[in-house]
Structure formats: C-alpha cells, structure tokens
Design goal:
By secondary structure, the chain is mainly β. 12% of the residues lie in helices and 35% in strands. The longest helix has 15 residues, at 587-601.
Length: 603
C-alpha cells in the first residue's frame, strides 16, 4: 500500500532499485522543535520505505565497451563533467539482476529550453548508435514523465540504458514562499537558479530484447483473396513492419516480425483488424519474443455511414488512408444496446471501481440493485468527454443525458435495479474509471466537526462524512488562475476513515503533474497522529507547530526526486486525526490551509 502512495503522489526516485535514498534533505528550521517520538517509534518503523533487495551478483553487468563512450557523449551533450559509479539494478525486460554503470551529469538551467530539448538530444546520442527506444517503462527502475521530468529506455542487442531527466531548483530552499506545485517554483526562478540533472544507467546481460511476431489471415468478402501488403504500425513511435501475401482462393496467411510495441494492423487494400467496438482499429501489444496469433484482417464492412472503420495511410507512402464512418453519423444510428454488466460489491465493502474503454460515441451500460432510501454515489473519471445517464427499472430518470454530468449523489426512491450508462461524446476511443459506492447506515459521528463552507461543488466529502469520519475542510483551496478546479479523488472511504487526493480536474485520478495535494481523516485512540491506511506519519521528520484553536500540529516537509511529494500538516481533535498536504507546498501555505480547515469546521 505504501508503494501505491509513492506512485500516486509522484515521489519518483530517479532509479528506485538503484539509489539507496531518494529525495533532497530538508532545510533546517531552528524555530521548530523536533516532534517528540514517544509512542510513535513503532509507527515510524512500520512506515519506512522498503527497498526491494537486488542481487548484485546476477547476470547484469556494466557495459563492457560502451560505458566510457556514452560517458564522453553525455558530457559533450550536457556541457559538463560526468561522474560514473557502479550500482545494483534489476531490469523489467527480463527480470535479470546485477550491476550497471550509472552516469550522472548536472548542467545549468540556461543551457536548454526545457526537459524535452534535453530528452531529444539524448535520444539522438543513442539512436545514432543503433539503439532502439523501448516503450515498456520502467526498464531498470521506477521513474516518471511530466512537465519537469522525462524518462527514456533504450536497448541494443542484450544491452539496456535507462535515462532519467529532471529539471529542478539548485536548492529546494529557493522555493520557500512560492505557492503552487514545483513547476510554479521553476517558473519563478531565474535560469541560474535551476539545473538539469541526467542519470543514465546502462547494463548488459544474457537476455536480449528480441523481435516479436504477429500472425493471422487476410480475407476479402469473396472467397478469392488477392495479394496485398499487410502493415503493422506503432502510432506512438512511428515504427512499422510489413509482409506480402499471395493471392489465394481463401484466407491468406501472414507473419509480421516487429520490435516490441503496440501496433495497428491493416493492409494496402483497406482491410484492417477492427477493435471490439467495430468502429476503430484494435491496438495489439507485442512483448520481447512474443508471438500474437489469430489476427484476422478483413474489410471494414458497411453501415448507413459507409465503411465502419478507417485505416491510416500506408507507412511506405504507397497507399492513401481510407476514411471510416464519422462520429456524427455513428451517434445518429439506432444501434442495439449491449446487455448491461451487473455491479456487485465485494463482501464487507460498499464501494468499487470499474475500468473500461469506450469507442467513438460509444456507450457502456451497467446495472446495480439497491434499496429504497440508500444513498448512491457515482463519480466518472473519463479521459475524454463522457457523461452519466442513470434511471430506475420503473422508468424514473435520476440523471438525463442533457445534464452532461460525471457525478451523482442521490437518495434512491425505490428498491429495484438502477441502470447506469456511460455515454462517450468523443470521436476517439477513450478510457474511463467509474467509482460507485452505496454506504451503509450512518456511522457514529459526534457532529462536533462540520465545515461551514463546502469547497467542493459535488458535495462528495460531506456525503461520505456520515459514513466514514467527520471532515475538516478549508473554505477553498487556492489554485493558479486558468487551472482546472480542485476536486477530491477518493482512495479510501469506509467506517471511521477517508483518504482523498486533491487534483486539478476530474481526469487526474491522483497522479502526475495534475496532483495538487491530499486530505485525510481517521478515527484514532492516540493523542498524536499515527498515519492512515495509505499515508504513513513520518514521526522522525515531523516538527511541532501550533495551529488554530489551541491544537498542536505536526508538520512533515516534502522531499524531491524526479518529482516532489506532499508537504503535510497532521493534527488530532476529539478522537479523530486529520491531515492536509500540498504537493511541494511551502510550510506557511500548508499550515495556513490547516488553520483554515480547523476554523471552518469547528463550532
């Protein structure tokens, strides 16, 4: 569970299997007292990061010939000296462990325009040496991309290199007093106050990243199938492969040799391998050495909208694209409705999350049985425009399509089945997560804590409060002009506890550069914080700080690797512990938010 938290908030160690520690030290603050450990010792021990053991005696070893060459090239590209050390590693490509040469270069912030410029330069260094980009990340550890970080993975025969690029302040103390996420701090600093840091880790082993294969048949509507060219195109990398088929009186077999990646399959005659929705081409993932079989390439079929799916232009430039049905035409068709999937909760729980994809203008139906006067809470998190439509078996419409909403909190009028449709308004395939909960009867809630002003328009936190823990919330969460509104994404909601990521907009779901902060509440018998299910309380780094209404707070500053995690204030009041955190938040701002939550929520 701790590992999940680290990934959600973006504490992205440059190479977690490689570095013994991750993040910068905290600036000294003589005005604070170090928090008393007292009974927190066991909590602190249980919450320490557990780094997986790596067998340094495994098959991986530093590059025999290329480490010195790559060091020289990296130094020239970055315009600086490069340090080299040998570190333990484990590769996700084959599972091998061992050691690698790790090169570190730090260059001034004025040398490049942005992280992508650095990334482009380093890609060129490897690609001119016939190294191939590999999309299965991470390949030697853990990392992440974003506005201030990037990650690359390249292979050559049995060799692998992982590159982590970070754009960061020279000193984190330079960000004190600058509100907002780490990129807001970087925008406020001069180029001389920033730096680009590159960590390039390279190893070779016995296992080689091998080509894979896609096999299947091409078939026209008529039994006669003319000869054609079958293409496999990776739309992300632009890499492609092709194979010729012979003319036959039936299906024509083909085999495509491809490097690992995700491919769309189509032919020079406009046939293709369609996705399940019938309106787009499927994506086929191929791993190292894997053969994917049973790919049957066929004509797109016809509907009132013409060809049901289109195919791109051939990568060799010999064949133009075939245009498929338009999104407007698809939505106008009276398509048969799919049988709804029934939603059921696991024993002892009252919530679940459903994940799926929607084709262009697609619809995904669900059905849920619930009792009269129960409260149903729905939150849809799509990657494109999509909305909820909810109705009862008796025909009562709880949310219509015209409402264009992604959330619903409603007390149910009858005991019956309720139909929940997810309607895509996108002309492309999108992914979604649907969070569904029907909390049990109200848990014990002393009622002494209740925000006077609700900062979230959905009212989600207030609704859950009756079934989890009384909430403490500030009247608002400050955000930069032009950014999406701050919304909660629930990690945990059960009797006596809630945990939520604060995000810029509904699409974030607790990850990456769109993560804003965190709020938690949990019933406790302790007089001091003890952490929650997902978020540990780091007693060894906590500093006492006075809060509003005579409450004692515990401030835990953020740490930074490739990205920064949250600075958090913890406190205990009337049998519940609370916390508010901001990603790379200045101490003064985080404490001010905690005080605002206390004064907004206490009688």
């Amino acid at each position: 569970m701790r590992k999940r938290f680290v990934l959600f908030v973006g504490v992205l160690c440059a190479v977690c299997f490689i570095l013994a520690a991750c993040g910068a030290g905290q600036p000294a603050d003589d005005s604070d007292e170090v928090a008393q450990i007292v009974s927190l010792t066991m909590t602190a021990i249980s919450s320490e990061v557990s780094t997986p053991a790596v067998d340094a005696a495994g098959g991986l070893k530093p590059l025999a010939d290329n480490c010195e060459d790559l060091k020289t090239s990296l130094g020239a590209a970055m315009g600086t000296t490069v340090t080299v050390e040998t570190v333990p590693v484990e590769t996700s490509l084959s599972g091998e462990t061992g050691t690698a040469c790790q090169m570190t270069a730090v260059s001034g912030g004025a040398r490049f325009g942005n992280v992508l410029e650095v990334s482009s330069s380093l890609r060129g260094l490897l690609e001119t040496r016939d190294w191939t980009g590999y999309l299965q990340l991470p390949c030697l550890g853990h990392g992440g991309a974003g506005p201030v970080a990037d990650q690359l993975c390249y292979t050559y025969e049995n060799q692998v290199c992982e590159i982590m690029i970070a754009y960061e302040p020279l000193e984190m103390s330079l960000c004190e007093g600058i509100e907002g996420p780490i990129d807001a701090c970087l925008d406020a600093l001069t180029p001389e106050q920033k730096q680009y840091k590159v960590i390039q880790t390279c190893a070779e082993g016995s296992a080689q990243v091998q080509k894979g294969a896609i096999t299947g048949f091409a078939q026209m509507l008529d039994p006669y199938t003319p000869g054609m060219t079958i293409y496999a195109l990776d739309p992300v990398t632009g890499k492609w492969a092709s194979a010729l088929t012979a003319e036959t009186e039936g299906p024509a077999p083909f085999t495509l040799e491809v490097v690992p990646g995700s491919y769309q399959i189509f032919s020079s005659l406009g046939t293709g391998y369609a996705a399940a929705d019938g309106w787009s081409l499927a994506a086929i993932s191929v791993e190292s050495g894997q053969t994917v079989s049973g790919v049957n390439v066929s004509p797109p079929g016809a509907s009132q909208c013409g060809p049901m799916f289109g195919v791109p232009a051939s990568p060799d430039g010999l064949h133009p694209p075939l245009i498929g049905a338009t999104a407007d035409c698809i939505v106008s068709l009276d398509l048969p409705k799919a049988e709804p999937a029934r939603i059921e909760f696991a024993a002892g729980t009252f919530q679940t999350q459903l994940h799926g994809t929607l084709g262009p203008q697609g619809l995904e139906p669900y059905v849920l049985y619930a009792m009269q006067d129960q409260e149903m809470i729905l939150n849809l998190y799509p990657t494109g425009p999509a909305y909820l439509v909810v109705s009862g078996l008796d025909g009562t419409v709880l949310v219509s399509k015209t409402a264009e909403t992604t959330s619903l909190i409603v007390r149910l009028p009858l005991t019956q089945d309720y139909y929940i449709d997810i309607n895509s308004q996108s002309g492309e395939t999108i992914a979604y997560t649907l969070a569904v909960s029907i909390p049990p009867g109200a848990a014990a809630n002393n009622g002494r804590v209740h925000p006077k002003v609700e900062p979230f328009s959905s009212g989600l936190m207030q609704s859950l409060a009756a079934h989890s823990a009384p909430v403490m919330l500030p009247p608002e969460f400050p955000a930069e002009a032009g950014t999406p509104g701050i919304v909660p994404y629930l990690f945990t909601a059960r009797a006596g506890e809630y945990e939520a990521s604060l995000d810029y907009g509904l699409d974030c779901r607790g990850t990456g550069a769109c993560h804003y902060g965190v709020i938690t509440g949990m019933q406790t018998d302790s007089a001091v914080p003890v952490g929650t299910t997902t978020f540990p309380f780091e007693a060894g780094r906590a500093r006492l700080t006075p809060l509003a209404n005579g409450i004692t707070g515990y401030f835990v500053d953020y740490t930074c690797g490739a990205n920064c995690n949250d600075a958090v204030v913890w406190w205990v009041y009337d049998g519940y512990q609370y916390s508010i955190g901001l990603k790379a938040g200045p101490r003064t701002l985080v404490i001010a938010l905690a005080n605002a939550a206390i004064t907004n929520s206490m009688p």
